[in-house]
């Protein structure tokens, strides 16, 4: 049997006055794989522990298959949990570790056949007589998985089960978990701060920030229609470009979104979404441009709905299958106050020495200018080992200044570009996000239902 899990307006405080989970409502269908995604400390593990019965719920309701379960003992919930630290008994072999919950469940029964079947499913039959100290990290985590699934629990709760493994192994186990849970069809709630993991595993992803649910949807929905600037920035690599803009809607001229020294001219006739933007006339907004909505091409090859700007090449990152080009377009990174802790220091990419002011001076100058302009977008550290310092998703200096350039564009590796080139850029306006100063998406209209089957 697999469970439906519902949280209705659930809150939790460890210390008086500070809610680490705040009014969370979520309905998880039987057999669904739901990922709780968010930065460190946003309350993900607390949610999991409340579902497991390891933490009391202060306010709100937990329903298991429609029944109020707030006060049920953990054992009565029939839920198995997998932790990030593997949590195996060091004095037991893999066989005994996997069989342990079965022996607790039914003292008289022989766990042997279930242990063997589970080990076969996980491909760890040859590890059954080894102790945890004789296993690699990946093997240990497989055994921990085995212990969770051998019981045939009605739901799995997984708390960053792969975070202690190296990137290659994580990818492999990620695929295995996806396959295994699909085969077993057991409701799974999976906690991670790694957006790539969330996107590849989840039927749906619930994005949490500061204990508050920001958005829940399929990976495709949260990527293509993020409800706010936080979700937009948290999901997607390279990180979305967020620029400070101003809506201009003169009565006698074309409607534009000013981006510093340049402007995006909205195509006419205006789409419904762009017409709705008119009320923002004169207001500052945040413009979100994913790296794939801008292409390097001149005006003559513009398609309907594309606007032309230009960019100065600041840095070219060769990635093999693609190139990430960092442009300076003369715009400012978006101002979003109160967006939590900055990422840790990232190394700016190495550049050749040039005449004139040194690298450090130029960085200092730019950081100073940006700071004078206001706080720039700074987001929680994703702590993703696949996202090393200097990679496009982590190009934020300690001050929060994105370096180098203000716009990262993805292109094919055959495009030859070098530092200092002025390049025409076409922006697909249908796929540009506009957020208000509170960070809420206002274009496409927030009422727009996801229609993402294309
Ligand atoms: N037992 C506790 N007592 C007091 N505060 C706690 C306790 N457990 C967690 N917290 C605090 O509650 C907040 C949420 O913690 P939680 O572990 O749920 O976050 P998380 O999103 O899972 O973080 P991480 O990804 O780092 O594990 C944090 O600020 C944490 O310090």
UniProtKB/TrEMBL annotation:
Residues 337-365, 381-405 are annotated as: Disordered. SUPFAM superfamilies: MOP-like, P-loop containing nucleoside triphosphate hydrolases. Residues 5-235 form the ABC transporter domain. It comes from the Bacteria. The keyword Transport applies. This is ABC transporter ATP-binding protein. Pfam families: ABC_tran, TOBE_2. Gene3D superfamilies: 2.40.50.100, P-loop containing nucleotide triphosphate hydrolases (3.40.50.300). GO terms for molecular function: ATP binding. The keyword Nucleus does not apply. Keywords: ATP-binding, Nucleotide-binding, Transport.
């Amino acid at each position: 049997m697999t469970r439906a899990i519902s949280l209705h307006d659930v809150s939790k405080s460890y210390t008086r006055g500070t809610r680490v989970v705040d009014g969370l409502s979520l309905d998880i269908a039987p057999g669904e794989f739901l990922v709780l995604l968010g930065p460190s400390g946003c309350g993900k593990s607390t949610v999991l522990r409340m579902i497991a019965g390891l933490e009391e719920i202060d306010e709100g309701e937990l329903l298991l298959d429609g029944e109020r379960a707030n006060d049920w003992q953990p054992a009565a919930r029939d839920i198995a949990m997998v932790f990030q630290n593997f949590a195996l008994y060091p004095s037991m072999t893999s066989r005994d570790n996997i069989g342990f919950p079965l022996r607790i469940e039914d003292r008289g029964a022989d766990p042997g056949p279930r242990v063997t079947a589970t080990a076969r499913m996980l491909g760890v039959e040859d590890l059954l007589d080894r102790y945890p100290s004789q296993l690699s990290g990946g093997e240990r985590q497989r055994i921990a998985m085995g212990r969770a699934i051998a019981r045939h629990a009605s739901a799995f709760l997984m708390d960053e089960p792969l975070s202690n493994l190296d990137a290659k192994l994580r990818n492999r186990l990620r695929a295995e978990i996806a396959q295994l849970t699909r085969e077993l069809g057991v409701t799974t709630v999976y906690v991670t701060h790694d957006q790539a993991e969330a996107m590849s595993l989840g039927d749906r992803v619930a994005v949490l920030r500061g204990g508050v649910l920001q958005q829940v949807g399929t990976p495709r929905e949260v990527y293509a229609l993020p409800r706010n600037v936080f979700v937009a920035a948290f999901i997607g690599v390279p990180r979305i470009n967020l620029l400070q803009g101003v809506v201009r809607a003169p009565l006698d001229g074309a409607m534009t979104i000013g981006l510093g020294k340049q402007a995006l001219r909205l195509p006419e006739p205006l789409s419904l979404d762009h017409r709705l933007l008119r009320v923002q006339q004169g207001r500052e907004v945040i413009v979100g441009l994913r790296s794939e909505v801008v292409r390097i091409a001149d005006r003559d090859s513009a398609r309907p709905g594309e606007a032309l700007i230009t960019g100065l090449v600041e840095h070219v990152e060769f990635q093999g299958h693609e190139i990430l080009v960092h442009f300076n377009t003369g715009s400012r990174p978006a101002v979003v106050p109160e967006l939590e802790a900055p990422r840790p220091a990232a190394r700016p990419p190495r550049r050749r020495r040039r005449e004139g002011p040194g690298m450090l001076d130029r960085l200092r100058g730019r950081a100073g200018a940006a700071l004078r302009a206001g706080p720039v977008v700074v987001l929680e550290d994703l702590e993703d080992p696949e996202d090393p310092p200097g990679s496009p998703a982590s190009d934020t200096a300690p001050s929060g200044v994105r370096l180098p350039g203000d716009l990262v564009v993805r292109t094919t590796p055959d495009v030859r570009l070098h530092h200092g080139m002025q390049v025409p850029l076409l922006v697909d306006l249908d796929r540009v996000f506009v957020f208000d100063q509170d960070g809420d998406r206002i274009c496409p209209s927030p009422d727009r239902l996801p229609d993402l089957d294309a």
